[in-house]
Amino acid sequence: MSAAATAARTAHDAGVERLLASYRTVPATSAVRLAKRTSNLFRTRTRADAAGLDTSGLTHVISVDPEARTADVAGMCTYEDLVAATLPFGLAPLVVPQLKTITLGGAVTGLGIESTSFRNGLPHESVLEMDVLTGAGEVVTAARGEPGAGGAGGEHADLFRAFPNSYGTLGYAVRLRIELEPVQPFVALTHVRFDDLRDLMAEMERIVDSGRYGDLWVDYLDGVVFSARESYLCLGTQTAERGPVSDYTRQQVYYRSIQHGDGVRRDRLTAHDYLWRWDADWFWCSQAFGAQHPLARRVWPRRLRRSSFYGRLMRLERRFDIGDRLERVQGRPPRERVIQDVEVPIERCAEFLDWFLANVPIEPIWLCPLRLRGEAEWPLYPLRRGRTYVNVGFWSTVPVGATEGETNRRIEREVSALDGHKSLYSDAFYERDEFDALYGGDAYRAVKQRYDPDSRLLDLYAKAVQRR
Ligand SMILES: Cc1cc2nc3c(=O)[nH]c(=O)nc-3n(C[C@H](O)[C@H](O)[C@H](O)COP(=O)(O)OP(=O)(O)OC[C@H]3O[C@@H](n4cnc5c(N)ncnc54)[C@H](O)[C@@H]3O)c2cc1C
């Protein structure tokens, strides 16, 4: 091991020690939580009654092994730092969530998705092993493998399988070893327009099955719906060919660059800028803060054109209830937050979009196909192997209805009726029984009992539903 690698490992061990030391200072009767600087969670995050654990030494990449194409990464390392460490080797994580401050541990425990998910599945599927601080205060190594098969993987394979979608309620990942894939320095983009959502879905399915659009090899695939008559598939192809590239951290806005008349529009980005293409304007949500207005954009500091900054603005807005106050002044009702990502089987997705466009006044809508990559079962988010789903993302507000969370509840019902799933980073309204049926309640309880017997961490239902 080189001196630099030894130093990185030593620094990481010191970070784990600090985390454990902070855990030990918490009385056994108190609950604990992560004290993190950033978050991409939309439901209420902090527990006033829970003590914050010191994660300050767990934010770095420990090592990259270009031969084995793996990286050892601290649990609270952001994807921005992770990608910065791997790209110089011509490598990238198999799935890089779009927002720079999402952490590796957060994406594995809270699920993540991106335009590689049609071929690489979800972020937890490329984890080889992870060290987890459990609710019982022990650090255990959980790896792929069957329970009882011996070795670290065997002994804690139940934790490994139940970790995705547990949202930190079983323990905290402090180190993860992940697979990486080779990437070329540039991405050539082809945006294809559709005026019928069924045509778009049919083409998406063909690309997922074949990896091609006509003669074009497709490495990355997502899409945007602007209306029932205007939607796009955004295809990315890796390339080493040099040439002019666009830069959407300046005056132009990425999602606007997708829109065009009939046919296709071509574009190019560096691999780095492709991975972060959605971050500069938080998909399209920066519009709410005026950041897309040409004049505001000219004076808006470039370093603040990023999702984490808009996230801070949004938390301020919510703290002071600015949006609803403005609605009141204009004699309008307050608004319900509808910020969700749902997964719908591809063959039902056009049906879901028809329903959504007719019932929920939100657009644009993000589309991202996914298929589980491996053979493993993930009990807390049981997608079916061999089946293609489409992640449908919508992030805005609507006028409040007669009951709390009316639109969110209707979406939950519609998604369940179509045999879909909803991710839990935002508001959820399920009854306990339904929640248990959808999110592996029995499997969860067994693993919870083993790794957090004294309930130092919240229960998943309490965290995802009751604490909204
Ligand atoms: C508007 C919006 C859009 C989103 N879009 C995408 C998207 O396009 N693609 C995508 O992939 N994801 C997306 N997400 C979801 C995001 O990946 C998850 O919310 C993820 O959990 C956030 O990770 P974080 O590191 O920011 O964690 P946080 O927000 O800090 O925490 C999320 C949860 O994970 C727990 N947690 C954090 N770190 C760890 C750890 N090391 N070990 C165990 N538990 C931990 C926390 O306790 C908390 O319950 C989106 C979320 C939002 C709000």
Automatic annotation (TrEMBL):
It is found in: Membrane. Keywords: FAD, Flavoprotein, Membrane, Oxidoreductase, Transmembrane, Transmembrane helix. Pfam families: FAD_binding_4. It is an enzyme of class 1 (oxidoreductase). The keyword Repressor does not apply. It is a single-pass membrane protein. Its EC number is 1.3.1.72. Its main location: membrane. This is Delta(24)-sterol reductase. It comes from Agromyces allii. Residues 1-183 form the FAD-binding PCMH-type domain. InterPro entries: Diminuto-like, FAD-bd_PCMH, FAD-bd_PCMH-like_sf, FAD-bd_PCMH_sub2, FAD-linked_Oxase-like_C, Oxid_FAD_bind_N.
